[in-house]
Amino acid sequence: MERKSFQLGDVVEMKKMHPCGTNAWKVIRMGMDIRMKCTGCGHSVLLPRSRFEKRMKRILVHGEAEAE
Ligand SMILES: [Zn+2]
Fold first, then answer.
1. Tally of CB atoms within 10 A around 7
2. Cα 1 to ligand 1 centre (Å)
3. Which runs of E-coded beta strand occur in 1-68?
4. For 47-60, how does the pLDDT look when each residue is reduced to its tens digit (9 = 90+)?
5. Per its UniProt record, what PANTHER family does this chain match (predicted)?
6. Interior CA angle at 55 toward 52 and 58, to 5°?
7. How many Å lie between the centroid of ligand 1 and the Cα of residue 13?
């Protein structure tokens, strides 16, 4: 079974898309809570890690490669 693993800078797809119509979120902070930023509108949200893992569908882009 594959375990969802993610790291800082990853762009992930969630089960629900953001109201702005984008479903690509960049992980910008890791810890007990995960902060992710909508790549469409720039809105950022903070989620407890367990909830983040439940809501995440897949990783679109593996992070740390691109500098912003
Ligand atoms: Zn958005």
1. 11
2. 31
3. 11-14, 25-29, 33-38, 44-48, 56-61
4. 999 999 999 999 99
5. DUF951 DOMAIN-CONTAINING PROTEIN (PTHR38455:SF1), HYPOTHETICAL CYTOSOLIC PROTEIN (PTHR38455)
6. 95
7. 12
